[in-house]
Prior knowledge:
heterodimer, A: mainly beta, seven-stranded mixed sheet, four-stranded antiparallel sheet, B: 113 residues, mainly beta, six-stranded mixed sheet, five-stranded antiparallel sheet, globular
Amino acid sequence: NAGVMQNPRHLVRRRGQEARLRCSPMKGHSHVYWYRQLPEEGLKFMVYLQKENIIDESGMPKERFSAEFPKEGPSILRIQQVVRGDSAAYFCASSPNEARNSPLHFGNGTRLTVT
Amino acid sequence: TQLLEQSPQFLSIQEGENLTVYCNSSSVFSSLQWYRQEPGEGPVLLVTVVTGGEVKKLKRLTFQFGDARKDSSLHITAAQPGDTGLYLCAGLLQGGGADGLTFGKGTHLIIQP
């Protein structure tokens, strides 16, 4: 199955630790999006990346959160000094091109729990 | 402020019944997509509608994009237990905005056998 792969599926961190979430896009896809899902809020756009470039990070908190998509390897969403409010499901999606209405292929998410 | 309002939030019906769920906004969208999400999994794309008034059918599912491209509906005929899931609408705002899709909160649909 060459779908979008996210790992880990579940991640538990204590307050103040760092969380690193990984996403390997579908084969042939060079555009990656990160979304956060909370039960009360639905899916919220965080950041859009292409290889080695952040295209739009308007949905990402200015502090503690960062994302990268290196030339080689998976995209990484990094959350430093996690707080309880960071607990959520984080989904990565990929698309084959930059068309804004290009269909997104989602991974099965990483469920982050901050204790 | 929620740009895309979905209704109803929850719907539980018997197998074989018909249903319609709605996705409404005061903003114009250049395109709108419907996804279905099951517990523990990511959303899966069902359809993309682009043209105002467009109707698309996917087996027992009928999707319609409003003439003004501000709203959409999903109608399911003869619902089956396999249709159970969270149905999400998502759109791209006309004329710019973030590159990411704007999602509604979804309709939780349960089809009882």
